[in-house]
Amino acid sequence: MPTWTLHGDGRTVAPGAVVKPDERLNAGATIAIGLQHVVAMFGATFLVPSITGFPVSTTLLFSGVGTMLFLLITRNKLPSYLGSSFAFIAPVTAATASAGMGSALAGIVAVGVLLAIVGLVVQFAGLGWVNKLMPPVVSGTIVALIGFNLAPVAWQNFQLGAVTATITLASVVLFSVLFRGFLGRISIFLGVIVGYVVALIRGEVDFTAVNKLMEDGQWIGLPPFQFPDFVSPGTWSTIAMFLPVVLVLIAENVGHVRGVATMTDSSVNAQTGRALLADGIATTIAGAFGGSGTTTYGENIGVMAATRVYSTAVYWVAGIFATLLAFSPVVGALFNSIPAGVLGGVTTALYGLIGIIGIKIWVDNQVDLSRPVNQYTGAVALVIAIAGFVIKAPGIELGGIVLGTFAALVIYHLGNLIARWRKTGADDGGPIVPIGQLGGDAPRD
């Protein structure tokens, strides 16, 4: 069983100090901060299954289980919550529409297995090869194109409840600039609450499923499980759409580890391979039983930065509580009642933010966009994704995310080979930097 050293008096954190991963506060403070982490992850974690049609309670279950598994595999040295990843939304949506939910789950499992393999390689060989494969201009492009590729999905939902969607979107933006601290960081979650209230007033919420479960007394019950389909003809062609997600999860996990190491102790970086392995295994298990793929959460880094508590003890509390919460069918049905207008408003902001995170990677690394190889790496890939380019062949269909990722990798690496040969201005890249959460407190004047 994991053990922690009591930090100070167990109640307070001295100015300039932090509660390290192997330390803890007293039981009351640990439980309270753990529940705060659940609140922080909840908004984003329930949105992914709500958008893709996955069972919310199942996703919540494997989010909690995945978090505890992550803590075990990283030997209780890396604080992190594994929530559902937005990088899966586009391929899951496309796969479900073309080949069914089973094929989408097969894609999630494939991503998990591949990520776990990458984690093992990183654990023994280091991160150098990842940095060379995905320098900032490439990693930023891949993250951005995944967000921008989802724009049509946001518009489809927006049109189904334009008034509610507009109010939801406006609320998200308003809360992000109105509040400081924790409330500012959960502006998306607060926007969903406002949108849901508006939808209630406008009569857009259907409580039929919720009422039936309450009448039947089904407050407690097992989440619904679904299983991947690896035998249908369309499955293997849809799996290709999921492969670029691996690159995003690598960047997110590496960024998370580096972010925590910067704020606590550089020795945390030694957990990078284990973090990738743990997220890969958690994603594999989730996909195997009907849950969404997982990733480390920037929202929870925000909570740690605000509280200066990096204790892994609080994440055990969060993982256990999320797991218990998943065993309430009423809770799952309540989240499934969120109408399209609310989802349309919040995803308009959310998908755009995913794109902006990619651009932030360019800015943080001072990517030289005067170099043609960098210009075309981003330009071609983004247009392919935004326009939704598709290549169809017998038994296979490649969409915008796959083609955009392939274009970014080929243009960058082949273009640099030619540029070095011709001495026309190659870009030799650099390491992947932390992908931080957006928003939060601006510096005071």
Automatic annotation (TrEMBL):
Pfam families given in the database record: Xan_ur_permease
Transmembrane segments: 54-73, 80-99, 105-130, 137-155, 161-179, 186-210, 230-251, 313-335, 341-363, 375-392, 398-415
Keyword Transmembrane helix set for record: yes
InterPro entries: NCS2 (IPR006043)
Membrane topology: Multi-pass membrane protein
Principal cellular location given in the protein's record: membrane
Any coiled-coil regions, as ranges: none
UniProt-annotated location(s): Membrane
Keywords from the UniProt entry: Membrane, Transmembrane, Transmembrane helix, Transport
Family: Belongs to the nucleobase:cation symporter-2 (NCS2) (TC 2.A.40) family.
Protein name: Nitrate reductase
UniProt source species: Microbacterium terricola
Lineage: Bacteria, Bacillati, Actinomycetota, Actinomycetes, Micrococcales
